[in-house]
Amino acid sequence: MIIQPKTRGFICTTAHPAGCAKQVESQIEYVKAQKKIDGPANVLVIGASTGYGLASRITAAFGAGANTIGVFFDKAAEGQRTASAGWYNSAALEQKAAETGLKSHSIVGDAFSDAIKEKTIELIKAEYGTIDLVVYSVASPRRTHPVTGETFSSVIKPVETAYSNKTLNFHTGEVSLTTIEPATEEEVRQTIAVMGGEDWRMWMDQLLEAGVLADGATTVAYSYIGPEITHPIYREGTIGKAKNDLEQTANKLNDLLASKNGRAFVSVNKALVTQSSSAIPVVPLYISALYKVMKEKGLHENCIQQMYRLFSEHLYGNNPATAESSSLIRVDDWEMREDVQTEVMKRWDELQSDNVLDLADLEGYRQDFFQLFGFHTDGVDFDANIDPSVDIPNLV
Ligand code: NAD
Predict the structure, then answer these.
(1) DSSP 229
(2) d(Cα 203, Cα 205) in Å, to the nearest integer?
(3) 234 has catalytic annotation
(4) What are the pLDDT digits (tens) for 1-44?
(5) Taking a C-beta distance cutoff of 8 angstroms, is the pair 374, 16 a contact?
(6) How far apart are the CA of 384 and the centre of ligand 1, in A?
(7) Which sites bind substrate (predicted)?
(8) What distance in angstroms lies between residue 46's CA and the mean position of ligand 1's atoms?
(9) What is the architecture, at CATH level 2, of domain 7-147+192-279+301-333?
(10) Does the model's pTM come out above 0.90?
(11) Among 56, 111, 157, 284, whose CB has the most other CB atoms within 10 angstroms?
């Protein structure tokens, strides 16, 4: 079939297998062109198929030569329905890992469940022995608790007071004012249950108990802070409460891993277009302005550049800021640079529908959005008839 993008708001319901493969290949090429990382041998990435998790897995495998297990929640193609982008990305990654002689397995299913944790542990025991690095990069709208069976939904809302600011419809370029009513206490509780640290902690408890963590094992999860204008909807909102919980979990995991000489970190990453961030009000306009300013200053990075920097400079480098007591790593340092933020804020005040193409990188935002699903990718014939059904090699 000929596969075209079909969008509904910030969702694209189709994905292109050849385009996704090309996107993965270009991330692999990027890390292969950098200095090799003297890093981990066996890596588990939970939430490994798109965004920061995919870039982490690529950096581990092709930047450090690690064997990798990827856990993710994606759908295979069915009839005329394409697979999800993460499925195609993982198929391409497995293919390349096999060609390179790297051991690699993929597990598709709900990372929040005990069944998937047990399946992963069995795989580690059978094929890997122990794991040196656990990356936790799950972003999900829902979670069913493995013990109580309660299903929680996360919301992205301010807390206590309503929040109004500019937002962007990136399809039309319309900049408008949006007001978001505050979350209830119950919504805050549920968002923390989905996006906080409990599941990360459960993974680490179970991996430790099963004896599959190597001595000196490291674990890292991802967070975001961002500028003051987005604080009410992000850092001080429901999702920020969950991120506080995640960051506190890192401290608890540091204690838990002490017996193994292990370390736990939260890396604060840059704002980037991913399937998760495009769902947040206000943030896409901020990201568009940020892209423009960072590109002008030669500082722009995508997920793969961020993750290469995280691995090479922080997790497996000599950055003194992260080597000892602090469990917080900042790879959002270039985004948060004073000159970058001053320029973004100056533009923010002026931004409206008729100048968004000049003041912000709307085209770059759109391109990145479509590329998440394999579209708008150079070197791919989008008019070609293509089979949407693709197998993931080494799917367990
Ligand atoms: P993403 O949507 O691209 O990736 C989410 C991953 O989680 C996918 O691989 C998906 O398959 C997986 N997943 C979702 N539900 C799952 C489940 N139940 N079981 C197994 N896997 C599941 O998101 P992202 O933007 O890369 O976010 C990853 C992390 O990075 C999040 O913690 C996010 O808050 C953080 N972060 C994102 C940004 C940003 O701007 N995008 C910035 C800083 C930090």
Answers:
(1) G
(2) 6
(3) yes
(4) 999 999 988 899 999 999 999 999 999 999 999 999 999 999 99
(5) yes
(6) 31
(7) 224
(8) 9
(9) 3-Layer(aba) Sandwich (3.40)
(10) yes
(11) 56
